[in-house]
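Sequence in, structure out. Go.
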Amino acid sequence: MSKTPPAPASAEALAREGWRLTDDALAQAAIEVARAQAGLQGALRRARDAPQRSLADVAAALEVAAQHLQAALRRRGLESFGKIGKSAVYDPQIHGLEWGRAHSGEAVRVTAPGVRRVDGETLVKAAVRPIRARATA
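Output:
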């Protein structure tokens, strides 16, 4: 008597599982953001006594929340790109100017990260501003 191999999972079942994992990751991120918010409120109350310690607690809570959000992105095959404050070479396909003008290849400063699929499709352009050369005296 031969065993029949198990039927492959349906596309619908796979999609449901993918969304379940994403929902779990986003739920965890929402919890961490709520904790960070509560931590910030507590830090503000304690700031009179120990401002350095309070700010360190808030920074740590925000870091945990950011890690959970990045995990949720990865589970959906997404990634963020562009680190706030860093310079980049302007590419209108992946960068959105907040103000001013820039031509392809010019230096810009990232003011908010973008989000793309791991295959390279940009979903949200990274926000950037032109970097202007400083005048020399």
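Check: The first helix runs from residue 11 to 46. The beta strands are 78-81, 87-89, 95-97, 107-112, 114-117, 122-124, 126-130.
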